[in-house]
Amino acid sequence: MSRMFYHLARRSREAGGLAVSHGTPRRAAKLAMVVGTLLVVINQWEAVTGTASMDWLKVVLTYCVPYLVSTYTSVSKDLHSRSQTVAAELEVYGKVRNSEV
Question: Is the pTM of this model over 0.85?
Answer without folding.
Answer: no
